[in-house]
Structures are given as C-alpha cells and as structure tokens.
Amino acid sequence: MRVLIAEDDSTSRSFMRSFLEPYGDCDLALNGAEAVDAFKLANEEGKPYDLICMDVMMPEMDGITALKAIRDMEKAAGVVKEDEVKVVMTTALDSPKDVIEAYYRGGCTDYLTKPIDRQTLIDLIKGYGLIG
After folding, report:
1. In CATH, which superfamily holds the domain spanning 2-125?
2. Contact, 79 vs 107, CB < 8 A?
3. What are the structural domain ranges in the chain?
4. Which percentage of the chain shows pLDDT scores above 90?
5. For the chain, how far is it from start to end, CA to CA, in angstroms?
6. pTM (2 d.p.)
7. How many Cα atoms sit within 13 Å of 103 on the Cβ side?
8. 56, 91 in Cβ contact below 8 A?
9. Alpha-carbon span 35 to 29, nearest angstrom
C-alpha cells in the first residue's frame, strides 16, 4: 500500500506515520499544495497512492481544496468513482459544516476527528480492502 500523509502538525504527522508505516510506504506533505503536487507526481511516475490521510486545516492550501483538486485530476484522467484514491480527512474540528464540506465539496471517502484512534483508522483501511 502506498500512503500520502498531508498534515502540517509535526506531532500528528508522526502519529499517523507510526500507525501506517507497518502497512506500506508513507510519503509526507506539509500542506495541501504539497499534497496535490505529490499526488500528481505519483501518478505521472505510475506509482499512484492507495490512501491519502489529509488534515482539513493546513497553510497555503487547506485539505478540502486540495482534495477537490485531486478529484478534478482523477476526473480529467477518466478515473471512475470506484477507482478513486481513498481519502480520509482528519481534523480537530467536529462541526457538521466541516463534515458536509469534506464529503460533498471535497469528495472524501471518510472523515476522522482528532485525536485519531489507531484501530478505527486501521479498520477503515481494512474496509477499503487495502490491507488484510
């Protein structure tokens, strides 16, 4: 499994990496703009991500805007919904407005509120069929 972790907070980034490294290769992005660039580069190299874990609130470009850009790239490439990269949005915010934006404006696969529970995250990934 190939994972992109987009998180501006170093502690959260470290936790996510420690959760996910046993299951695959993890790349890091410090903001939404870096996440979009990493996604584009991975696809150009023929090594697309299977999973993206992305914080909602980040500098330069927020996670929802980055996710929208990623979904637009997939759409332009003819990727059907079933084959889209799985994206779990993470945030300290737990407001209905943020959840609705992440799902409907961004097109996320799932949404988790910090602090992230390791087992909940692993169960989601198992549900996607990315790990056994």
Report:
1. Response regulator (3.40.50.2300)
2. no
3. 2-125
4. 80
5. 11
6. 0.93
7. 9
8. yes
9. 5
